[in-house]
Amino acid sequence: MLLKEIKNIYHLELDPLFPKEEVDSFFYLVIDHYLGLERFILAMQPNLVVSKENEDPLFFALSQLKQERPIQHILGKAHFCELEFRVDENVLIPRPETEELVYWIINEVQKGDPREEVKILDIGTGSGCIAISLAKNLPNAKAYALDISKKALQIAGENAMDNGVDIVFLEADILSLEGFKDKFDVIVSNPPYVRELEKLEMKNNVVEHEPGLALFVSDGDPLIFYKKITRFALSHLKKGGVLFFEINQYLGEEMKQLLEAENFSEIELRKDMFGNDRMLKGQLDPK
Ligand code: GLN
């Protein structure tokens, strides 16, 4: 079959379910993954033929997409901060908003002395995307990452290895963080923050395929993880150390107040590329 015919079939079957540009991007990710073909192949070779056996994975991927399985799960990988990460149903698929948080941290750390080691702790690391991207971009970083899920830690470990960085991984529950002797220059976390009431707004492919453990928090105390981590940061950040959070877009003010109440300074709330309150930074007194 001609590659352009397959592309048409993708659009026919998926356009009712997804925006057209998204269907385009699925198609090009799939042909890149299975056939090693570049995005611009159809412009260069409009009559390219795909052999019968090479068609099979393309149609298998299509059938999975129709069932709203995330493209990253079908291909087993996601891109984040220009790196590749393995993902499956045990970890959250890295989001572009989180890339913005990582670039913010890189920027802040780069203001310091590049010869001094910067100890970073990522709480609730999932696929490891935050810790690994920081370690990859900051040669003076020593990164630690923890998660409650053994299966997530397994994937994060593989991702660290694939990306050639050395990270200390630890199995721990955010709600009972104990026994850490180390103090850190930076603590970062993207804990679960989606309230039950917001679940209704979420897409099926997220709710049905991504781990609830990494996403949802009870409506009763939606800041429970942030409160724990903030208290932990008070005793485990070095003087002048910085705490970074990815946050629920509807709870920006509450989050700012939480850091103010614990006497953090230089508090800054930032929006993501979609214009939503999404990240927060606060610093511990340098004296
Ligand atoms: N931003 C993610 C989503 O909306 C949620 C991430 C999280 O709960 N930490 O799917």
Automatic annotation (TrEMBL):
Record NCBIfam families: hemK_fam (TIGR00536), RF_mod_PrmC (TIGR03534)
Function noted in UniProt: Methylates the class 1 translation termination release factors RF1/PrfA and RF2/PrfB on the glutamine residue of the universally conserved GGQ motif.
Catalyzed reactions per annotation: L-glutaminyl-[peptide chain release factor] + S-adenosyl-L-methionine = N(5)-methyl-L-glutaminyl-[peptide chain release factor] + S-adenosyl-L-homocysteine + H(+)
Keywords: Methyltransferase, S-adenosyl-L-methionine, Transferase
Residues that, per the record, bind substrate: N190, P191, P192, Y193
Annotated GO biological process: methylation
Protein name in the entry: Release factor glutamine methyltransferase
Sequence similarity: Belongs to the protein N5-glutamine methyltransferase family. PrmC subfamily.
EC numbers on record: 2.1.1.297
Positions of the Methyltransferase small domain: 116-203
Coiled-coil segments on the chain, per record: none
A GO molecular-function descriptor: methyltransferase activity
Residues binding S-adenosyl-L-methionine: G124, T125, G126, S127, G128, D147, N190
